[in-house]
Amino acid sequence: MLLRLTHGGAVWLMVAVTLMWATAGVVTRHLAQAHSFEITFWRSFFTMLALLVILPLWRGRAVFSQIRSGGRELWISGVCWTVMFTAFMVALTLASTASVLVTMSLGPLLTALAARVFIGHRLPVRTWVAIVVAGLGIAWMYGTQLVQGGAAGGSLLGTLVALCVPLAGATNWTVVQHARAKGHDIDLVPAVLIGAALSALLTLPFALPFQANAHDLGLLAFLGVFQLAIPCVLAVLCVQVLKAPEVALLALLEVIFGIALAWIGAGEEPAASVLTGGALVIGALVFNELLALRGRRATVADTALPSAH
Fold first, then answer.
1. pLDDT tens readout for residues 215-224
2. Is residue 308 part of a domain?
3. Residue 256 is part of which domain span?
4. pTM
5. 249 lies in a domain?
C-alpha cells in the first residue's frame, strides 16, 4: 500500500495522529473493572493483533523476515517501544492525564541531550535555554506533588513512571542514529510490532486474573487499534515528509488534546501546578522548535522518530 503525501496533507494527517494518541486518557478513565497491568496487557495485545494484519497489507509478508534479520539494534529499539507502551499506560492509572502528558512532552529535549552526550552533536544556545526552562517547569510540577503528597494532579509515582517514556524514546533515537551512522538502517515499523508483543508478554503475568468485562475489552480494543496501531503507521508516513521540528511541534498537540479530552470527557480538571509547569515546558518546546524551523541547515540530529506510546 503506497500513500504519497503532500506537505499540507502530512501536516493535517499528523494533527489527526495526535488526536488519536490523545484519546488514551479519557478512554482509560471510563474502564470499569480492568486494573493497571491488565489495561497495559490488553492494549498491547490488541495493538499486536492489529499490526499483524496491517503490516503485511502495507509492506507485504517480507516485513516478518525483516524482524528475523533485523539485528541487535532492531531488537533494542523494540525494547524501547516496550518501555514506552508499558510505562505510559501504567502511569495513566497512577497519575492524572495532564501530569503524564506534560512529563512525556520532554521527549525532544531529552533526545537532544542524548545526541549531545552519546553522539557528540552540538546543541545550539536556544536548545540549552529550552532545556533549562522545561526543567524548571517539570521541577515545579514534581515538587508541588511531592510537597502535597501526590495531590494536585496525580501521584509523584505516576509522573516518575511517565518519565520512563521520554527516556526510552531518547534511547531509541540514539540507537537508531548510531545504527544509521554505521550504515544499518532500522525499520521502525517492525520495531513497533516487537514492542507491542514484548509489552503484552511481559505484563501478562501481572495482569492475571483478568477482571475486564466486555465493556472494558471494547474500550481496550479501541486503544490498541485506533489509539496506537493505526496512528503509529500514519506517523511513520508523516515523518517521511515533515521535518523534525515540524513533527515535534505538531506532536505537542497531543498534550493539549489529551488534557482537553480528559477534562471534557471524564471531568478530570488539571491542577494549577500541572498547568503552570506544563506552560513552561510547552513554551520552551515551541520556542526551540520554531527557531529550529528557521534554520537553513538540516543535520542528522533533525531526524525524527514518531513518539508512539
1. 999 999 999 9
2. no
3. 7-302
4. 0.84
5. yes
